[in-house]
Amino acid sequence: FAAFRRKLKIGSRLALGLDLGGGSLELITGDQSEVRFETTLPLGAARVHAELVRSDPMSRDEKRAVRTRVRECLDEYREALVRWAPRPSIATGGTMRALARLVAAEAGRDLTAIHGTVIPAEEFRELTRKLVRSSQAERLAMPGMRRQRADLVPTGALVLRTVMEELELPGFTVSDVGLREGVILEALELT
Hints:
This protein is α/β, with parallel strands linked by helices and 191 residues long. 51% of the residues lie in helices and 16% in strands. It has helices spanning 2-8, 45-52, 60-84, 94-107, 121-132, 136-140, 153-166, 179-190; strands spanning 15-20, 25-30, 35-41, 89-92, 118-120, 171-174. A six-stranded mixed sheet has the order 3-2-1-4-6-5.
């Protein structure tokens, strides 16, 4: 969250930060001066994919299983997070950056300038639908797709889409910094 604060100037608004990694999803709410809530959920793209997805493209049952897993993990936090209505919702991690590159490529924008990109909920839903219906070969043919992300992007997108819908988020603001950068920034401030 320190990295989000530094790069996005959150101010006094309550914001939600999401960092989707391979093994976990970090959820943090806070404003420019303090973190108010944080949790780590076992919803990383690689973890969920390894545990629940065997088909390419994903089967209907696999999609249902991923969404059910996300809902179950969010269950104890959903009501409070919806009530707090944090805005903006800032997302980072390799999957989120890959999704932002796909959006940028579709719009003909610079693929390296994704920081601060806003992906509205409906656009995110449509991108997720396209990815979970596609095969590995079809994803590799998509402008902006990188080979090392092509296998996990559909699962990660479905995790993020389900979080977005469950928490009634209007979409995501993309950050190119995350947990690692925040730890470094905090360490530098202590020295």
